[in-house]
Write a structure and sequence with these properties.
Number of strands: 6
Order of helices and strands: EHEEHEEE
CATH class: Alpha Beta
CATH architecture: 2-Layer Sandwich
Mean pLDDT: 90
Largest sheet: 4 strands, antiparallel
Helix content: 10-25%
Structural class: alpha+beta
CATH topology: Alpha-Beta Plaits
Protein name: RRM domain-containing protein
Strand order of the largest sheet: 2-3-1-6
Shape: globular
Low-confidence stretches: 81-85
Strand content: 35-45%
Number of domains: 1
Number of helices: 2
Length: about 90
Amino acid sequence: MTEERTVYITYLHDDVTADLLEEIFTQVGPVEHVSIVAAASNPRYAFVQFVDEESVPFSIQTMDGLKLFNTPIMVRPRAKTKQVCTF
């Protein structure tokens, strides 16, 4: 599953691009995909999907708190969504 190979990044400066994130996160493991989500009502955030699961903990340890455009980013594992059934 892709969740195990993906990190969630928040506190992104407006100048951070998907290409920049790919370039930076490739230093900790091969990157498969990067997507940035920007909504008017929420701060920008991104998902970086790695080729290998092993890259996730290393990227969190290495990149959490890294300053991009003088703004520290937060890197966490992508949260798994749970489906709730109500009757």
